[in-house]
Amino acid sequence: MTYLGKKVGIVCCGGDESPLGIISRKATLMVLRRLRRGTTTTVCLPLFSTGDEDYRLFARFYPTIAVDGCGKLCAKNVTSAMSAKVVTSISIEDFVERLGLDPSSAASDTLVQKVAEEISSAVDSILAERGEIEPEPEAEDEEGVSYEKCACGIDLPVQTLVVGGKPMKVRALPLIFEESYKENEGLGQIMSLVAAYNPIPEGMERDVEESVSEAYKRFLKKMIKKNRTTK
């Protein structure tokens, strides 16, 4: 099952003090609202940088584009440091220099359009390369997987486990399992990711780990069976 949907997150520069920061936001809004509406979503940089779990979760499991106004590359660096490396980084400063434009004209509609087209092209390249499809939110399956919307408006998988005799929802667990399987990571790394995106009640750490371990064993059995049938 494919959980990564046909969405690309755009992490936009938040600088108000320069025309290039302003143009990055205007161009991003043009992409979100007009040029690539439906296949893009915004990742709020201020909330992301303060550790918002929804945005960090999205940026780890969905491809992102950083759009920075200046050479500090705040959007790119914050995303890479707090979640995952961005797929594409666009610097408005470099873009303006490459086109031989005057930075003082950065607020012009023509330049906004050009930057928006550059972002749109990056979105198309990412989706074409990954061949992603929209996830279809569905009722909870036999493994207790359902979908809940994150702050980005995206349906993210949530798996319900029985922990200490009570149901507990673990956000992004199917995605964590898939990533760990591909990277051949052990239970320790899985639990680090689980704890990064889910509050674990004090004193329940061992119970949660046992439930996650059992769920991962079931996941591995499914993958082994799937691999056998595809050979």
TrEMBL record:
What protein does this entry describe? Zinc-binding protein
Q: Which organism is it from?
A: candidate division TA06 bacterium
